[in-house]
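User: Can you fold this complex?
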Amino acid sequence: MGKKLAPIVDKKPLDNANISVLKGTSMRDDQWSALVVAVGKHRDRKSFAKLFKHFAPLIKSFAQASRQEGWFPGIAEDLVQEVMIKVWQKAEAYDPQKASATTWIYTVARNCRIDMLRRKSNIQHLPIKNEDFWHEPDKDTPISFFRQKRTEEQVKESLSRLPREQDEIIRKVYLEGKSHVETSHELNIPLGTVKSRVRLGLQKLQLLVSTECREDLNND
Amino acid sequence: MTNFLKHHPDSNMLVEFSAGSLDIAPSLCVSAHLHFCAKCRSELSKLDEIGSHFLSQSNPTEVNEQLFENVMNEIDRTEHKSTEPEPDATVQHFPAPIKKLITAAKNTLTWQRLSSSIDTAKLFTGQNKFEVALHRISAGGTTPKHDHRGTEYTVVLKGSFSDEQSIYTEGDFLVRKPGDVHQPMGAKNGECICLSALDAPVKLTNPLGFLFRPWLKINPM
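Assistant: Here's the predicted assembly.
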């Protein structure tokens, strides 16, 4: 199972011996998550430097993939800087039980990306940031560590096998940051088709929850 | 919190929320719903795995060597924590972003009377598409029957109300579009407070609707 991690994963063992918090079978054992915990608990700069070395180039590439209105590739490094500062500031709130470091950093990057765009396109002072919409992982969320881990692997496996037209749309939405409406304009297909392709994609990724609590599945 | 919510944002909206492409006002409504709905929170955490996968599969692109130092300098400069002002006691149990908006306005809510049973308090969110507001329906209060000219998102924050189709309780999320005519009524056992985001004025079905001036236009801010 551990082998399924992203290919860029640095294979070097974790040399920071005092991070025993993640040992044990029900704990997340990838080194990135351990490093975020070390930053949160001990404000450990060496761990942070390793995180930076691994994630800064990924975030930059992620930022360059963005095609949102008002976004230009030149600000990719501004985003990297902003995200990494947030990682340092918010590491304390990170819970390795609830998400991998990569997923957590994705959510930070997603929030920073949208906030940068809003700041740039808005002359008014914005009273609220995208991260404010975000809920810290909580005990109420009925999802166990094992289920979470299984979802991660499921998504990785099935994403590579999505039919082309669903893959295209999921990429537009997540990588380019396009809304469904923008996607429909760009690909010149009806909004309803975009929505149903997204949902078909989710179905393939087994991410769609059971139908009884989703009216949208029955409607169109 | 309660797990018995019946009305949720659809999967497409959660995807846009997860990908970060949803406008501020609907995001605020989704976020308010998430405050009450563990099921959607858990679905959202799964959706984030998609973004996570794309991030981890990105082709690493070298960053400027100076960048790490810049980050460390900035971290040292900002290391002390800023304290957020305490929100008004009456909104303590509201979802965090709404409390923040109220606090940011530097005053308590300014309620404006819309009819004998509805008051509204506008919220400044720094965008120009949706009017975002709280609506307070008094216990047992009746609101005018109306259609919608655009999209209206509503989340119940306190108490409950009903219309011709259903009863909506704390956390329930509703979308109403043109052609959806309804007449919300406050529950008898207490006032109901809802968050709403509206991108066009509602259309009162009463032929004398034009007399209800506060309903005739919206003021996105």
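The mean pLDDT of chain B is 86. Chain B touches chain A through 66 residues (CB under 8 Å).
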